[in-house]
Amino acid sequence: MRKITHRLAALALLLGAAAGPAMAAGDAPAPIDKSWPHEGMFGTYDRAALQRGFQVYQSVCQGCHGLDYIAFRNLEALGYDAEEVKAIAAQYTVVDGPDDQGEMFERPGRPSDRKPAPYPNDAAAAAANGGKAPPDLSLITKARVSGEDYVYSLLVGYEEAPAGFEVSEGGYYNKYFPGHVIAMPPPLYPEGVTYDDGTTASVEQMAADVTQFLAWAAEPKLEARKQTGLKVMLFLIVAAGLLYAYKRRIWSRIH
Ligand code: HEC
Question: Which keywords fit this entry according to its UniProt record (predicted)?
Fold first, then answer.
């Protein structure tokens, strides 16, 4: 009897392990394989794209999605100067305090503030969005398999549901979302944003720009990390060469 229970338990574990990833992936197709300027060993962020992406985030996404880990002063990395960052921060209202009377109060944002969240808590966020809280986007490109490619595909992946596919109430059909029914209404429409630099705001353009901005938010130090990596490689190559020359010199006396 014990043996049978053990075997059953093992079988259940195996089945669970097999079903887990398959169910998590749903029947969504692989995301579009897009090439990104910050990809690869020498890749760096495209500052103009990051600024456009921030514009898309500000005018479209921030009403629903927080970006908790980003303080306004971090935006200097996108190429804004200190004055511009000050002006951006001042567009937001943040809660500060308590003051001398023990009261919390509101004031315009300062560069050292983090970006305020759109909802006071997850329950409020879920209640306002058909039961699904919009996730914080600070680390979203790291939190999903295929990172940038997935986020981009999701944003351009809204389409008519195929005939016979039942889209549940409050849901929208998206080709790339696991299970295809997402609680996020299609956020991007052509010309939905007027870019400061005059770029034409097609859905693909906005999706690519905001995705690059989110990739930066998730890894602001990517360029420094790659530079350090390259320096270390260079050092190792030079050190290996020196050691080899040294070894030959020492052994030449013995042969
Ligand atoms: C009207 C509110 C709303 C707006 C505007 C909005 N989203 Fe969402 N978003 C949601 C909700 C709700 C979810 C959770 C969907 C779910 O789990 O079904 C979500 C989920 C997501 C996800 C995660 C998908 C996943 O795999 O779990 C990403 C990425 C995302 N949104 C990106 C964006 C971007 C980028 C923008 C701006 C271009 C944006 N959203 C604008 C409400 C919104």
Answer: Heme, Iron, Membrane, Metal-binding, Signal, Transmembrane, Transmembrane helix
* Domain 28-223, architecture per CATH: Orthogonal Bundle (1.10)
- pTM equals 0.86
Q: Ligand 1 pocket, 129 CB below 6 A? A: yes
In the chain, where the domains are located = 28-223, 224-255
**Taking Cα atoms as reference points, which of 177, 178, 183, 221 lies closest to residue 69?**
221
pLDDT tens readout for residues 84-120: 999 999 999 999 999 999 999 999 999 999 999 999 9
State pLDDT tens for residues 110-157.
999 999 999 999 999 999 998 999 999 999 999 999 999 999 999 999
Going by CA atoms, what residue is nearest to atom 42 of ligand 1?
A: 184
- Judge if the beta carbon of residue 182 lies within 6 A of ligand 1: yes
The answer to whether 184 is annotated as binding is yes
